[in-house]
Design a protein that fits this description.
With 435 residues, this protein is an alpha+beta fold. The protein is 41% helix and 25% strand. The strands form four sheets. Strands 3, 9, 12, 13 and 14 form a five-stranded antiparallel sheet that branches. Strands 4, 5, 6, 10 and 11 form a five-stranded antiparallel sheet that branches.
Length: 435
């Protein structure tokens, strides 16, 4: 029965330790179970090995944790290093942008002042002061644009800074275009420079030559002035036209201009005394072919000839004292001598109606809290500006009649209004009283 029970029990496995325990407590049972085990009726399982805590395993875990920690640390370090590299790269980019803007601005300012230095050699008086104010205005505008660019480069990202700078330029363009009505973007900088220049410098003539201040004496026309007799206005005959031009100078009638905190004064009698001006005739450089030698001749002269800038000698041909209305006149004697090589109706003899002046003026410069004013002399000569010669070109017209009767008899004339042939002139050319 015990064997049967054991057989039944043998359906269950036993461990070696359990079997060994029976050897002391129940030797008979131990014996029976051992025999059953030999017969294969029960299975004796080896005792499970109880593993001791493994230092190797713990070490592996620790190593894994350390590795994970180091990887995380490396990630942090790498991220920090990347951030530092990015920050360093951004700083260098910002510095490079600032340096580039400074260099470009310095070059542009250098060009502005080189241009002024070149112009100043041939300018004086008001024109030189205006050129200086424009150079200063250009420098200020370039400096402001540089400051804006540097601030944006330092405190804004490249994209944001560029967007803001473009927005500022667009706003400036729109404001200038709306005010001036000129939508050409290439003129925006020019308008800004002119406005700032006019604000920096105010100029006003203290003595002036008015619009109707030139008068002429009666014209003298002489034919063949060196001959005792003449056969009239014919080709090859010499003509001389002479007259005296008087130019009246007066005080500037405008009320004093108030510029900021400083009052710019009006002209006075002393300003007129210190100034002079001459209307005069000038010879053109290339007269018409009929005035060329050998058959023609052309010469225009005057007295006085010219005084040049910075000269007080011009006062010699002016009134020595002022009139009751504080004006004075300066006088020039003008002569035009010519002969035409061919006959012609309304033959034009050209000359330039020029003006040479030396006038006192006042200039007022902005000095932070207002304008400081001083006086200077301004010299102008209209013949110095070739662009205005077309505006001052004038003609004296005279009919040069043919020098033989046959040509004279068949000669026609022009309608004085349309300058076309006058059909009703000399219609009875055979003189038979029949037309």
């Amino acid at each position: 029965s015990s064997g049967s029970g054991m057989a039944d029990a043998g359906a269950k496995n036993m461990t070696e330790s359990e079997l060994a325990a029976l050897e002391e407590t129940n030797p008979e049972e131990f014996k029976n179970l051992s025999n059953l085990a030999k017969e294969g009726l029960i299975i004796i399982d080896p005792d499970p090995i109880e593993s001791e805590p493994s230092m190797s395993s713990d070490l592996d875990v620790d190593l894994i944790e350390v590795v994970d920690d180091e990887a995380a640390l490396d990630g942090v370090v790498d991220a920090s290093a990347a951030a530092e590299v990015g920050s360093s790269t951004s700083a260098w980019a910002t510095a490079g942008s600032v340096i580039l803007q400074v260099l470009i601005t310095a070059i542009l300012i250098g060009v502005v002042w080189m241009n002024y230095a070149s112009q100043a050699k041939s300018l004086q008086g008001i024109q030189k002061d205006i050129a200086l104010s424009q150079a200063i205005a250009s420098t200020i505008i370039l400096g402001i644009l540089l400051i804006i660019g540097v601030v944006l480069a330092i405190f804004a990202t490249t994209v944001v800074g560029a967007v803001i700078e473009v927005a500022i330029l667009v706003i400036l363009y729109l404001l200038v275009a709306i005010i001036t009505g000129d939508w050409n973007p290439l003129k925006t900088y020019s308008y800004l420079t002119d406005w700032l220049s006019e604000w920096l410098l105010k100029v006003e003539l203290l003595a002036e030559v008015g619009a109707d201040s030139v008068a002429s004496s009666p014209m003298q026309l002489t034919m063949d002035p060196d001959s005792t007799r003449t056969n009239g206005p014919m080709p090859g005959n010499l003509f001389q036209i002479s007259l005296t031009l008087s130019t009246t100078l007066s005080m500037n009638p405008d009320l004093p201009k108030v510029h900021g905190w400083t009052n710019a004064r009006a002209g006075n009698a002393n300003d007129v005394k210190a100034s002079w001006g001459y209307a005069r005739w000038e010879q053109i450089s290339d007269p018409p072919s009929y005035l060329h030698p050998p058959g023609g001749y052309y010469d225009v002269t005057r007295d006085p000839l010219s005084f040049g800038k910075g000269s007080d000698a011009g006062l010699a041909n002016c009134d020595s004292s002022l009139s009751d209305d504080n004006t004075k006149s300066c006088y020039s004697d003008n002569r035009m001598t010519f002969k035409s090589a061919k006959a012609g109706r309304n033959t034009g003899i050209p000359y330039l109606a020029s003006m040479e002046t030396y006038l006192k003026y006042e200039k007022c410069w902005w000095d932070y809290i207002g304008y400081s004013c001083s006086t200077d002399m301004n010299y102008t000569d209209s013949t110095d500006d070739s662009s205005t010669q077309a505006e001052t070109l004038a003609y004296f017209y005279i009919d040069i009649i043919p020098d033989n009767l046959d040509t004279l008899f068949t000669w026609n004339v022009h309608n004085p209004i349309s300058n076309t042939n006058y059909a009703d002139f000399n219609v009875d050319q055979d003189n038979d009283d029949l037309s």
